[in-house]
């Protein structure tokens, strides 16, 4: 593609992102002033349509970019590199003061900040909870048949949850169970602990209910609930965009968002990738709903820890979205270096 054709294509894409309406040659001529006639621009746009970069919704209308055009545009943005979003960075620092005590709240806050800065849907997936290494686990009686479990991982991240116990256990029992589990499993990954507990459960089920069996049963409930953590913000921001201007589109979009497993599976594909990844209709969830995803892996001391990103219409402001995602992922990775 020659330089002039590329300029006109990018002008159409940027204009369509801004006005959410088919773009005509006269609009491009007046707004960008390339020093060429409207007729020349129109002919170039016609050539781009034949090449599959533009489409015409109906006769006499202007053109709109295709998925192929967006992908070409995004490649150019990624090749140029993106600057840090200083405004977002300042807000992230403000939210990070209590990340050690409330890491889940911090991840939720990041998804909200990304959404607020972009007006798209912010998502954060912490997929590697199972890869975290247990430092210590403690149990406390709470209410009748309810127990509070507190887990401390190798790098200081605290997780707490309330589980129901089928056995009546005193705090003395809880202390003994905590000591047994810490002696048995401290230094192991949560994934290995879950596997070991399942094996222990199978061995113990033929025996009478010993304290060890109670410990395995209780701990199995705790660790079976530790899977992917996903934080989603800005659904209303996404639905209010002109791209979803009828009730049928809104219902379809809401249904897709409610199925969190679909989003988890989509983000999971990115976990081992480096740098910002952009998907324009490259997945059934995205393609059917005319959505795009801009996402990046973030790291815990060099290990992939999770994925964060923005989901928006294909007519999304990719430059801004890439900057927001890149800034957020780099910041979160730096924070995890010091936890």
UniProtKB/TrEMBL annotation:
<dbReference type="InterPro" id="IPR021153">
    <property type="entry name" value="HrcA_C"/>
</dbReference>
<feature type="coiled-coil region">
    <location>
        <begin position="194"/>
        <end position="221"/>
    </location>
</feature>
<comment type="function">
    <text>Negative regulator of class I heat shock genes (grpE-dnaK-dnaJ and groELS operons). Prevents heat-shock induction of these operons.</text>
</comment>
<keyword id="KW-0175">Coiled coil</keyword>
<comment type="similarity">
    <text>Belongs to the HrcA family.</text>
</comment>
<keyword id="KW-0805">Transcription regulation</keyword>
<keyword id="KW-0678">Repressor</keyword>
<keyword id="KW-0346">Stress response</keyword>
<keyword id="KW-0804">Transcription</keyword>
<dbReference type="Pfam" id="PF01628">
    <property type="entry name" value="HrcA"/>
</dbReference>
<dbReference type="InterPro" id="IPR002571">
    <property type="entry name" value="HrcA"/>
</dbReference>
<feature type="domain" description="Heat-inducible transcription repressor HrcA C-terminal">
    <location>
        <begin position="104"/>
        <end position="322"/>
    </location>
</feature>
<protein>
    <recommendedName>
        <fullName>Heat-inducible transcription repressor HrcA</fullName>
    </recommendedName>
</protein>
């Amino acid at each position: 593609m020659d330089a002039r054709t590329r300029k006109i294509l990018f002008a159409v894409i940027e204009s369509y992102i801004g006005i959410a309406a088919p773009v005509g040659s006269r609009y491009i001529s007046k707004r960008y002033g390339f020093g060429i006639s409207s007729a020349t621009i129109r002919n170039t746009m016609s050539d781009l349509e034949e090449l599959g970069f533009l489409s015409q919704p109906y006769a006499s209308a202007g053109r709109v970019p295709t998925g192929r055009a967006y992908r070409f545009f995004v490649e150019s943005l990624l090749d140029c590199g993106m600057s840090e979003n200083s405004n977002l960075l300042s807000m992230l620092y403000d939210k990070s003061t209590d990340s050690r005590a409330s890491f889940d709240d911090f991840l939720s806050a990041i998804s909200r900040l990304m959404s607020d800065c972009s007006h798209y849907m912010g998502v954060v997936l912490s997929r590697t909870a199972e890869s975290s290494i247990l430092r210590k686990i403690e149990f406390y009686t709470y209410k009748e048949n309810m127990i509070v479990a507190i887990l401390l991982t190798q790098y200081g991240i605290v997780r707490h949850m309330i589980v129901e116990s089928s056995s009546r256990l005193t705090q003395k029992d809880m202390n003994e169970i905590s000591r047994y589990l810490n002696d048995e499993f401290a230094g192991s990954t949560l994934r290995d602990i879950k596997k070991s507990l399942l094996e222990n459960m199978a061995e113990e089920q033929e025996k009478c209910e010993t304290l060890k069996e109670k410990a395995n049963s209780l701990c199995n409930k705790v660790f079976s609930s530790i899977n992917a953590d996903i934080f989603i913000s800005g659904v209303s921001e996404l639905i209010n965009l002109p791209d979803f201007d009828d009730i049928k589109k809104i219902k379809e979009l809401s249904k897709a968002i409610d199925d969190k497993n679909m989003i988890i599976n989509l983000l999971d594909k990115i976990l081992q990738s480096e740098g910002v990844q952009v998907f324009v209709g490259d997945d059934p969830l995205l393609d059917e709903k005319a959505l795009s995803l801009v996402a990046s892996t973030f790291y815990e001391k060099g290990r992939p820890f999770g994925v964060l990103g923005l989901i928006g219409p294909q007519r999304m402001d990719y430059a801004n979205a890439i900057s927001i995602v890149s800034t957020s992922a780099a910041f979160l990775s730096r924070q995890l270096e010091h936890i």
